[in-house]
What does this fold into?
Amino acid sequence: MNPRMFWLFIVIVVVSFATEVQATDPLPSWNDGQTKQSILTFVEKVTTSGSPDFVPVAERIATFDNDGTLWSEQPMYFQLFFALDRVKILAPQHPEWKGKEPFASLLKGDVKATLAGGEKAILEIVMATHAGMTTTEFEKIVKSWIAAASHPKTGRRYTAMVFQPMLELLAFLQANDFKTFIVSGGGIEFMRPWTETVYGIPPEHVVGSSIKTKYEVRNGKPVITRLPELNFIDDKAGKPVGIHQHIGRIPIMAVGNSDGDFEMLDWATSGEGLRFGLLIHHTDDKREWAYDRDSHIGKLDRGLNEGPGRGWTIVSMKDDWKVIFPFEK
It folds into this structure.
């Protein structure tokens, strides 16, 4: 073999090897390191038959928070953007809102003053904009908004603001016979219309906050109507309760990004056998946002203090992720 053919052969071998390695890497957007390896090792142990840590398929439950874990949550929760847009649409039907808070400030474009009312103001906005229609009507409204609304900073559709490394993690778990669930403080019926398309998570695998509904017959047709009353808040200590009610099994893996997820991770990782807790730490102020202990959205304080001692893995978005959003690829 002449030298030229020899080096051509070497190049082909190297390229082929690199391509094969890339093709077999289930988490290509994750940088190699301890964080990525801890995920791969956990999945290998619980799915390898004969392993002392083997977990039967029926018990392979993984729960994921949504806001700040699977997609961004800054400068405020995306569902709140949806609610604010709904207020503007519904305002002509409610002239009294011009002199009533939190609606008055919102209609003047003063979102900061609107949110100064805290959870009470947010809840009032959600109740006014998410109720009074059937569940089918609400689903259509959500789908239309998701298809058209854009993030105020990036100009991207909100469903483009999902985290590419997390999409890969979901796909990796699903390929290894995990049942993946969303367990979020967000509205269950706000998420269900689009999670299967975006995450591969069907609506029956979504657990979230909810308002009350009732069955009734309209024009001879049975419908479920949404009422302006709170039913369940799926946040903090409510998350394990929601998991118990909707899923009926304790997860062996739980993933979140804030102290609102602490109880979910605590409950999941305190069970018998090998368990895995994962916290997403927003550390990249260039590609996304950097925030934690003092943030008004997605505060992460207790998790940073206690997570490592509980054996939880903490992801640094800046250090552990090659890309953050799918549109960066």
